[in-house]
# Entry
Amino acid sequence: MFSKIIADIKAVKRNDPAARNVVETLLCHTPLHAIFLHRLAHPLYRIGFPIVPRLISVFARFFTGVEIHPGARIGRGFFIDHGTGTVIGETAEIGDDCVLFHNVTLGGTGKHGGKRHPTLEDNVYIGTGAVILGPVRIGRNSRVGAGSFIFMRDIPRNCTVVGAPGRIVRRDGRKTDLEPPPCSFAIPENTAIIRPIPESIDAAAQAHKGLV
Ligand SMILES: CC(C)(COP(=O)(O)OP(=O)(O)OC[C@H]1O[C@@H](n2cnc3c(N)ncnc32)[C@H](O)[C@@H]1OP(=O)(O)O)[C@@H](O)C(=O)NCCC(=O)NCCS
# Structure
């Protein structure tokens, strides 16, 4: 855990031109505080310690605006810039040396149980406001542009994705314009949660249809 914390501090120095020295970074870089608290909460979560890991996560969110579920697996040298509004779900997996900005969502679709959040391979960069939903895989060295939206699509390695829905505009350094392939993660049948539309909402929708 200690070596990961050192790597996280080095990641701030590497990625944030505004970080002047270690003391200022330790005192003022609030997303780093959220990452530190996650480094404490995650092992407790993994051994099944009750409530405390979630409490640490709630405390971190309150003070930093970064919500990291204690179940998320995060590699070395993780850097979040600004942080406010960033949400990382329970089954998210983040490789080494990844960078996230504020308002990034690594979320589920709301339709699945089990593994339901994204996996980022090493050295992935996600711009501010990007929303990535489902157990998708973002390949090593790939970049997701600010404001992009990725829903149940995998992104191969060395790609740049921009837009909503996201399209691959750069691959291995060359310009392109490709639709990302569908998510390859097989969601086991028995973990699917099918939420039927409540009858009252369905009836209201039908009535609304009749009006237009
Ligand atoms: C996507 C990004 C990482 C650049 O990656 P890159 O591989 O260097 O890509 P390029 O700059 O070559 O851009 C490729 C194309 O995508 C477009 N593009 C880049 N970022 C975009 C975005 N966020 N949304 C829409 N289009 C975008 C470029 O205009 C370019 O289009 P063109 O080929 O028609 O000229 C960067 O533009 C980005 O979005 N960074 C996020 C920064 C951020 O969140 N900052 C917050 C600071 S508080």
